[in-house]
Amino acid sequence: MNLRNASSADGQTGDDSAALARLSGTLDLAIERLERARPFAKARYQRPVLDVLGRIIAQPGGLGVVRERAARMDAAGLFVGSDWDRPEALLPQLVGGTLVSEDPAFQALEAASLSRFLAVAKGDARHGNLHQDGARHFLTQVLALNLKDLFGVPDEAARGLGARHEVKCRVLRHIADHIGLNDVLSVLVSEIWRLLEQRSVQVGVVKDMIAQIAVALNENGTEPGSTRLGAERLVSALFGPTTASRDDPGLAVYLDRISVADDAGLSREAMGFARAMHDTGLVSDYHAAFLTWALDFDQRPLIPEALGLGSTGLDCWRHYRGVIEKLVRSAVTPATPQAAYGLAMLLERGTLHHAPMVPALERQLSLRLRGAARDRLALGFGPAVSPETQLLAGVLQVLGQPLGVGQGANPTCQSARAIALWALNDPDYLLHLVTQVAEFDTLQMQFEGTPINSADLPAGLAGMGPIDADPVSVLLVGHLDRIYAEMGRLCAGRPGDPHKWINPQFHGWWVSRDCAVAVDVTTGKLAAYDDFLRRFFATYHPDHNGGRPLGHPQPAGIAVTDAQQRFVGWHAIAILRVAEDQAGRMRIYFYNPNNDSGQDWGNGVVVSTSGHGERYGEGSLEFDPFLSRVYLFHDEPLRSAHGQDIPADVIARVREQAIASWAADRQPEDESVGA
């Protein structure tokens, strides 16, 4: 399947052909000099090749010339000394940014690398570390991640890049012409469904990708099959989930249609919206419009049907209909449609039966933002609706989808975890914090009796706070980050890891008061690691803790590794529960605030987000592989025996997995870990 208006020559004219022929000759000479250069002198001769490549890829038909010479350039040493010298380790998500780099050499190097992948994918070349299927998969991922540059209208940012964006689009079209788009749509659709299964609060990027799929299907179509079916389900969920909205008529026409619909037709609309919403976690603008219209439909209540409420939700509706209708009227708009899903899940959780919640939500309904808090929400979400509406919508989403809270592209996993756990365990306390910041632009907490006021503290790692997060996080994270840092300062001079004291004070009473740490804080080396592993088994494994389930989620720290098992950094998560999956394997289910829990930590340790008994928002691993990445967890200080019944070979197996990854360079010199 080829892109429209693309050809093998990219619209080449006679003059273009002559210019390209001259540049091709110049490139051949530059490659020949690179081939003859000694290894220590390769860098000197790489630059002339890159200079010519930069001029060629800007020419119509130039990418074909580059592809024909890709294997030769690779063998000559064009990539020697750079990250591109190891194609098997390259990341497709970085390609888009490099193709619009301000440095023409990086742009040319990326184009040459992609041409090498394309030559291998088509069978025109071979590479020792890259097989044909792997090359094709990599290029498919690159196209999927940059689909909007293939089909979308350039936005202001793209237009500002000028010629660099044109080159990027030219490269992507060239790849798409040669490997097709069916595989791209398949990868993209699968990735979207994988992300939707995690029920993130932030779905703006996913909705943008679905919009690009809609354009692709409209312009190019796709072959019948599961890919087309999955893509059409996504597109219809957003742009036409019901009979009256199937042709995406626009909100005004849609409201005219339902105003003359009969009772059966309205029921079909309500159930259609509910089915699409719970199937995908996405809410159509038409759904939001239907809900607000239904508030004034006096013949019978349509809200419960349109929200798809089960027995718990219906019970909440019967008891608290008044406040629920106020929430719909104030929070659910075409600019904030996801509030409807948050509200539905809030009701299904039975949150309103918690005594303080109804007055807390009534207070939220009447809340008026002031000062910097109002300005920050306006900056993050624009003028489509008032900051108060954005915040109320965000509150409903966070309370309904606690495990969907993400940290965005910010080093604020501690604060994101706190917001999620408060929404899960202590929702009225979370709303108390929201009110403080909304009205006074400060947050007051205590650390062991010492009051802390965020307004008196310098900015932390998050600066003034993120703007690429949900409204509750935009409001709170900057303040939480400062308070967390101040609690760390107050722990200065105490022995051991400060999280032992910070986490119970920061998160709540339900955090166990003792803390086990796998590494010595001063040296970074493993310390009594075997005892650490035994204690974790005794605390969390049902076969070794008397079968006690975990009552409240517990904060924990993991050593994150990449797919090659290299240490990336320390990261805050929460252990939610421990249970057998459907295959009888003991798994740990946990919350990860990093926006996407599905990660490859190397050596087969791949976090699952569905298919092994996970609930929405949970990640999971089998017990031993998970423990091999834990470096900190909480436990009760009264426990005296720590898993002395754990077989030595089980401890050794977990220890070996840790040593093979994040702890490779953390073994004590005497190697007496656990002695």
Which runs of at least 5 residues are low in confidence (pLDDT < 50)? 1-9
Strand order of the largest sheet: 3-8-4-5-6-7
**In percent terms, what proportion of residues is strand?**
5-15%
Radius of gyration equals 28 Å
Structural class by helix and strand composition: alpha+beta
Our count of helices gives 29
Portion of residues in helices?
Answer: 40-55%
What does this entry look like structurally?
The chain is an alpha+beta fold and 675 residues long. Helix content is 53%, strand content 7%. It contains 29 helices and 8 strands. The strands form 2 sheets. The chain has a 6-stranded antiparallel beta sheet with strand order 3-8-4-5-6-7, sandwiched between helices. Strand 1 and strand 2 form a beta hairpin. Helix 3 packs across helix 6, helix 11 packs across helix 13 and helix 19 packs parallel to helix 22. The chain is globular and about 80 Å long. The N terminus is likely disordered.
Question: What's the helix and strand layout?
Answer:
Elements: H1 14-36, H2 42-56, H3 62-68, H4 70-76, H5 95-99, H6 104-121, H7 132-145, H8 147-151, H9 156-161, H10 163-179, H11 182-196, H12 204-220, H13 226-239, H14 251-259, H15 263-280, H16 285-294, H17 303-307, H18 311-331, H19 339-348, H20 357-365, H21 371-381, H22 387-400, H23 413-425, H24 427-440, E1 444-447, E2 450-453, H25 471-490, H26 499-507, E3 514-517, H27 529-540, E4 554-561, E5 567-580, E6 586-591, E7 619-622, H28 623-627, E8 630-635, H29 648-659
Antiparallel strand pairs: 1-2, 3-8, 4-5, 4-8, 5-6, 6-7
